[in-house]
Amino acid sequence: MLAGVAVLTAVLLAFHRAVPNSVGRLGSLLEAFLPWLGLVAVVLLGLALLRRSATALVALLLPVAAWTYLFGGLLLPGEPESDLLVAQHNVSDENTGPAGTARALADAGPDLIALEELVPTALPVYEKTLAPEYPYHAVRGTVGLWSKHPLSGVRLVDIKPPRITDDWRRGLRAVARTPRGEVAAYVVHLPSVRVGASGLASSWRDESAGRLGEAIAAEQRKRVILMGDLNGTVEDRGLAPLTSRMNVAERGFAFSFPAGFPVARIDQVMARSATVAHIRTLPATGSDHLPVAARITLG
């Protein structure tokens, strides 16, 4: 029995893409929590030792090997040298302390700060608090970018799914003139997903990711940094239009949601013609998300 569960866990880790998405998007649901299958191996190890089952112990090598192949690199120690430090944070439209949130982000010292869920009442607070250290900023709809370096070419990125009829502006693009050259910076907030009796409801998120992937593919700047609340993990096939075109973090788990007990990183930093060398969470703010900070090495 234990050996069978170990083999099944290994199969799910190694062949998660084979789990179909046709019914309830079960494949995406599995991939959202894929790293946590490592806990299954830990539990099985305890039971195998308790029962002194040599067969189960040998079978456990399969999920351990699969998990290590997928996620072991994220555990490597240290923060590599980098050219840019960027911060990404969904600040929450219910955040009652925007000034404190802004100061906490600035204290981390990033070159770029990407914010989502900016509401009209809080926006002036973010602008005033961040202005001394971040003289350049751009806001489109509910997303914004603050920078230590000059910005140009600011425009709205239309990632709205066709079935959303409301005023919905959740994407912007700007060019940051950094000491290492120009970088196209995208700040986005993809639609939320819901887990219910019928599975994972993510169709709007997936449609928005597809539109964003097309925009990034058409981007003429060689170097691109994407920051945003993508409402999905990098293992989730729903984000394939992005992960197939961009590099994801090489080190760090940085689970960011929910802030009280983070179980997944849905706040992402990705890059093209650059490397996301390391990602980590920052201390909690007044949001239901944790901020993340990523070190970028430009190619």
Question: pLDDT under 50 segments (min length 5)?
Answer: none
In CATH terms, the superfamily of the largest domain is Endonuclease/exonuclease/phosphatase
CATH fold title of the largest domain: Deoxyribonuclease I, Chain A
Q: Total helix count?
A: 9
Looking at the overall shape, the CATH architecture of the largest domain is 4-Layer Sandwich
Biggest β-sheet strands, sense, barrel: 6 strands, mixed
N→C terminal distance:
49 Å
Q: What is the total number of structural domains?
A: 2
Write the H/E string, N to C.
HHHHHEHEHEEEEEEEHEHEEE
Molecular shape: globular
Number-wise, the strands total 13
Instruction: Kindly provide the name of the CATH class of the largest domain.
Output: Alpha Beta
Q: For the residues shown, what is the average pLDDT? A: 95
Content-based structural category: alpha+beta
Going across the major beta sheet, what is the strand order? Answer: 3-4-2-1-13-12
Q: Radius of gyration over alpha carbons?
A: 20 Å
Query: Helical amount among residues, as a percent range?
Result: 25-40%
β-strand percent reads 25-35%
Provide structural commentary.
By secondary structure, this protein is α+β, with helices and mostly antiparallel strands. It has 2 domains: 2-75; 84-298, Endonuclease/exonuclease/phosphatase (Deoxyribonuclease I, Chain A, 4-Layer Sandwich). The chain contains 9 helices and 13 strands. It has helices spanning 2-14, 26-32, 37-51, 54-59, 61-71, 98-107, 123-130, 203-218, 240-243, and strands at 84-90, 112-116, 136-140, 143-147, 151-156, 171-178, 181-189, 194-196, 199-201, 224-229, 267-272, 274-281, 292-298. Strands 3-4-2-1-13-12 form a 6-stranded mixed sheet, with no helix packed on it. The longest helix is centred in the C-terminal third of the chain and has 16 residues, at 203-218. The chain is globular and about 65 Å long. The chain starts with a helix and ends with a strand. The mean pLDDT is 95.
